Amino acid sequence: MWYFEAVLDLSDREGDRRMIAYDLQCGKGHRFEGWFEDAATYEQQCTGGMIACPVCDDTDVARLPSAFAIKSAKSASAHALMPRTPDEAQIMAQAVMHYMENNFDNVGSDFAKEALKIHYGVAEPRNIRGTSTDVEEETLRREGVGFFKFPGAVDKSETPSPSESDN
C-alpha cells in the first residue's frame, strides 16, 4: 500500500515559529483550519480577501469558536474534535489534500532521499510530499527524520514498478 507523506518545517533561523490555528467557515458552510502568525495577521488576511475556502474558494470567511478553547464537562471527550458527519469528514480530507497539493513539492518516489537531504542540510528546508517503501520509512525513522503519512490518491507516474512494490 502506498501513502502520501509530508515533512513540514516550521522553524526559522531564530528558533521555532509560533503559529495560531483558527477554525474557519466559509459563507457556504465549509469548515476548515487556518494557521496564522498572530491575530493581526489573520485580520489583515481576512479583510484583504486573502483567505479562501479550500473546497470552494469562497473568500467570505469567518472565524469559529475553537473546540480546544471551550472548557467542557469531563463527559465530553476528544469526539468533540471529530467530524460530526461523513460530509464534514470528506470536506476535511479534501481540504488537507488541496493544501498539500498547493503547498508541498511533489518529489514522487524520491521522498526518502529528499527528506534525508533536508534533514542533513544538503537541501534547502521545504515542505515535500511523495511516496516511499517500508524500508525507506524505517531508514527515515532511524535517522530521526520526522514525517507523517496518510492514505491518498497516487499519481500514475508515482506508481512503483512490480520489483519496487516487493520491498
Task: Describe this entry's structure for a reader.
- The protein starts with a strand and ends with a helix.
- It is built from 5 helices and 9 strands; from the N terminus they run βββββαβαβαβαβα.
- Mean pLDDT is 74; it is low at 1-9, 68-72 and 155-167.
- Helix content is 30%, strand content 21%.
- The strands form 3 sheets. It has a 4-stranded mixed β-sheet with strand order 7-8-1-9, with helices on both faces.
- It has helices spanning 39-47, 86-103, 111-119, 134-143, 162-165; strands at residues 4-7, 11-12, 15-16, 20-26, 31-36, 61-64, 105-108, 128-130, 148-150.
- It folds into 2 domains: 4-13 and 103-165, no CATH class; 16-78, no CATH class.
Brief synopsis:
It contains 5 helices and 9 strands; from the N terminus they run βββββαβαβαβαβα.
**Percent in helix:** 25-40%
Shape: globular
Could you tell me how far the N terminus lies from the C terminus, measured between alpha carbons in angstroms? Answer: 11 Å
The parts where pLDDT drops under 50 for at least 5 residues are: 1-9, 68-72, 155-167
Number of helices: 5
Q: Count the E strands.
A: 9
Judged by helices, strands and strand pairing, the structural class is alpha+beta
- What number of structural domains do the residues give? 2
Order of helices and strands: EEEEEHEHEHEHEH
Overall radius of gyration: 18 Å
- Return the average pLDDT rounded to an integer: 74
